[in-house]
Design goal:
binds adenosine-5'-diphosphate, globular, alpha/beta, binds magnesium ion, about 425 residues, 5-stranded parallel sheet
């Protein structure tokens, strides 16, 4: 019996076909898989089957050693491009999420702080609608909730492309709903949301206090639940600590509630190493350790610190050293009183620094200095607030999330090539953090 005959076609295509037998030596067969995630998955789920098949074909038992295939430089380039565009694109192709390598399981570092949420999310991908329904993940900003949700979206469709998956922020759900009412297309809204196999709703705390949408969401929930469709929901707090209606809160508790904590230092280091692998220059371990010690309770800030250091090094065409990292991050010493800045505050300060008005920053003119101020302000909103890309777009005169994405990309590149921009962004960021 061959391996292919031992498993379902989906498992074969997704998991087993990409494996390669590299070598056999002294009773050990070395098998390579495309990446670490793949290796883990095979080890957990299919190792025994592979052992059986190997024994059947070689006539004796072998130990299987699983390894990830080394990435080629071309792969890394592609990954970086997708890195820049992989976010929020899924809605453009309902039901067929794009490849989103940044927000994939492959790039999700598992540690004590998120292991449970991660395992539950993986289980949901394997058999949607059966184990934990709904799966409710809560935790503070910047700890990986959106990352997990998008990883589920991606993974579900990889495992079975016939399944319809829909990732939406609560705000997008809300907007679709309003749109449905306004255009008298509620049937379409209901059809879209109630026939999805896997519905992923991000930041459900946004619904609090909005009666009409809560009512609609309640019906959507019931209808999906009764049909055995999977839901995964995230929030910044436990349902018990929210002002959501009781009937909804109790439904959230029908499934599995799990939280994500701030990462411990090993996990922070592992996340930095993953990110460092994408960086154009070598980043010494001592620098990664330094960053991991500086930033502790928000992974977005952790990544931001690394970006800043790589940008600085590229700008000055220097190698990254610990001294340099300490210098660059000096301004980012832990905030004494963490406080969420608002987009308005950021726009105001940026406008002042760029010698334009806040109205010009959010306005539609494409004058060079306005555009520069606009892009920097968008970048700082991403860096210093918890706002999603669509929300940032909304704060800047209702711009699309792809415009915001482009702005972030642009500022990152400018920071690495133009000293004036680097200094301006650093000074603004420092000032805003101190307010
Ligand atoms: P949240 O939705 O909880 O506010 P995000 O999912 O947006 O947080 O995560 C913030 C940033 O940190 C993202 O860039 C995400 O990719 C990264 N991140 C979070 N958790 C992990 C993890 N476990 N491994 C790797 N990157 C992570
Ligand atoms: Mg989020």
């Amino acid at each position: 019996m061959t391996l292919k005959q031992l498993v379902t076609p989906v498992t074969w295509h997704t998991w087993l076909e990409p494996l390669r037998i590299e070598d056999t030596e002294d009773g050990v067969v070395i098998v390579t898989a495309p990446n670490d995630f793949h290796v883990r998955w095979i080890r957990d789920k299919h190792l025994e089957t592979i052992e059986q098949a190997v024994e059947a074909s070689y006539g004796e038992a072998f130990d299987i050693r699983l390894e990830a295939q080394p990435r080629s430089p071309e792969d890394l380039d592609v990954a970086e491009d997708e890195f820049a565009t992989g976010e929020h694109d899924m809605r453009d192709l309902p039901g067929f999420p794009n490849e989103a390598p940044k927000y994939s399981f492959e790039n999700f570092v598992v540690g004590a702080s998120n292991r449970f949420a991660w395992a539950a999310a993986m289980a949901v991908c394997e058999q949607p609608g059966t184990h934990y329904n709904p799966l409710f993940i809560y935790g503070d900003a910047g700890l990986g909730k959106t990352h997990l949700l998008k990883a589920v979206a991606h993974q579900v469709s990889v495992l079975d492309s016939r399944r319809t998956v829909r990732y939406v922020t609560s705000e997008e759900f809300f907007n679709d709903f309003i749109d449905g009412i306004r255009r008298k297309r509620m049937d379409q809204f209901k059809h879209t949301y109630r026939t999805t196999d896997v519905l992923l709703i991000d930041d459900v705390q946004f619904f609090m206090g909005k009666e009409q949408i809560l009512e609609e969401f309640f019906h959507t929930f019931n209808s999906l639940y009764d049909a055995g469709k999977q839901m995964v929901i995230t929030s910044d707090r436990h349902p018990r600590n929210s002002t959501l209606p009781d009937r909804l809160r109790s439904r959230f508790e029908w499934g599995l509630l799990t939280d994500i904590h701030p990462p411990d230092v090993e996990t922070r280091l592992a996340i930095l190493r993953t990110n460092a692998a994408f960086a154009p220059t070598e980043i010494p371990e001592s620098v990664l350790e330094f960053i991991a010690g500086q930033v502790s309770d928000n992974i977005r800030e952790l990544e931001g610190a690394l970006t800043r250091i790589t940008a600085y090094a590229a700008l000055h065409a220097e190698n990254i050293t610990l001294d340099m990292a300490q210098d660059v991050l000096q301004d980012l010493a832990p905030r004494t009183q963490p406080r969420m800045l608002t987009a308005e505050e950021i726009i105001h300060e940026t406008a002042a620094a760029c010698d334009v008005t806040p109205a010009e920053v959010v306005g539609s003119s494409r004058r060079r200095d306005y555009v520069r101020g606009r892009q920097i302000a968008m970048y700082l909103c991403r860096d210093l607030t918890d706002l999603s890309l669509p929300k940032i777009g909304a704060k800047f005169g209702g711009r699309d999330h792809t415009t915001v994405m482009h702005a972030l990309d642009r500022v990152k590149k400018l920071m690495a090539s133009d000293k004036e921009v680097f200094d301006q962004v650093t000074a603004l960021s420092q000032k805003l953090r101190e307010t």
